[in-house]
From TrEMBL:
Lineage start: Bacteria, Pseudomonadati, Pseudomonadota, Alphaproteobacteria, Hyphomicrobiales
Class in the EC hierarchy, top level: oxidoreductase
Protein name: SDR family oxidoreductase
Domain of life: Bacteria
Oxidoreductase among keywords: yes
Origin species: Methylopila henanensis
Length: 288
């Protein structure tokens, strides 16, 4: 019996469950709020309340019976909430065959627009990235200790249905910020789901997998392309230095790198459905 436990059933994990949940005999998911439990339960999922505290008896039993665990919950100030609250149950999961941890390409330092890959030593230049590096190491150590394959999926900027520049343009919130030489890496959520499914099929690959498309690109180009698909004029360009944006948004521009996806392509054998933002935006514009 194949049983999946998902910690943190947000946008990406929920999409994976929607596309690949039928590959499992049972799926258990967690969320941090009672409202989330009700919403996910209404979608037919076996949802558990979990915020990093001790796992409930029902969640602990589900984890002990799990063959596959997907961890999407981010670290907090105290470390990894999944290992902290469900570590005992994970240690008792005798049938565990795979753990996937969703991390971020934010673990790589600024490369001044150069390329990084899975052999690049992570040297985060932010507190968020440093937390991720620490938790990645905890999960890899867990895998070595248990003799269980653990794969770390370092995700680029995620877009897909309901979360993309097409929607931002329609809502009037899209901006074309220009910082010369700046590029961002991105990945369609369905390609993340395909990467996770491939990891489950090939658990010995990696263990580090960069999940990014084939073309890092300036963010203003993506907005302009999306506007063209809608047949509207793009918003005017705004210089990054003078843009009115949040400190969090500004911090993303402090790191400039191109992320290669060799392991995803060569070891996991994933052929991206959306190899660049063009294919992804075109599909989203037509409702695909």
């Amino acid at each position: 019996m194949r049983r999946l436990a998902v910690f943190g059933c947000g946008y990406t994990a929920r999409r994976f469950v929607a596309l690949h949940g039928a590959d499992f005999d049972a799926v258990d998911v967690t969320t941090r709020s009672p409202e989330g439990v009700a919403r996910l339960g209404a979608e037919g999922l076996n949802a558990h309340l979990f915020d990093g505290g001790p796992a409930s008896p029902a969640l602990a039993d589900a984890v002990k019976a799990a063959t596959h665990v997907l961890v999407s919950a981010p670290p907090d100030a105290e470390g990894d909430p999944t290992l902290r609250g469900a570590g005992e149950a994970l240690q008792a999961a005798n049938g565990l065959a795979w753990v996937g941890y969703l991390s971020t390409i934010g673990v790589y330092a600024d490369a001044d627009g150069g390329w990084v890959d899975e052999t690049t030593e992570p040297q985060a230049d932010s507190d968020r990235g440093a937390r991720r590096i620490a938790v990645e190491r905890e999960w890899l150590a867990f895998g070595r200790e248990r003799g269980v394959p653990v794969q770390i999926f370092r995700l680029a900027g995620i877009y897909g249905p309901g979360r993309n520049q097409i929607e931002n343009l329609k809502a009037g919130t899209a901006k074309r910020l220009v910082k010369p030489g700046q590029v961002f890496n991105r990945i369609h959520v369905d390609d993340i789901a395909a990467a996770l499914a491939a990891g489950i099929a090939r658990p010995d690959a990696g263990p580090i997998v960069n999940v990014a498309d084939d073309e890092p690109a300036p963010p203003q180009d993506v907005v302009a392309y999306a506007a063209g698909l809608l047949g509207i004029a793009p918003p005017p360009e705004t210089a990054f230095e003078t843009a009115d944006i949040t400190p969090m948004a500004r911090s993303f521009y402090s790191s400039n790198k191109r992320v290669a996806n060799r392991v995803l392509r060569d070891e996991l054998g994933v052929r991206l459905a959306y190899p660049t933002y063009r294919e992804g935006m075109a599909a989203l514009a037509t409702g695909a």
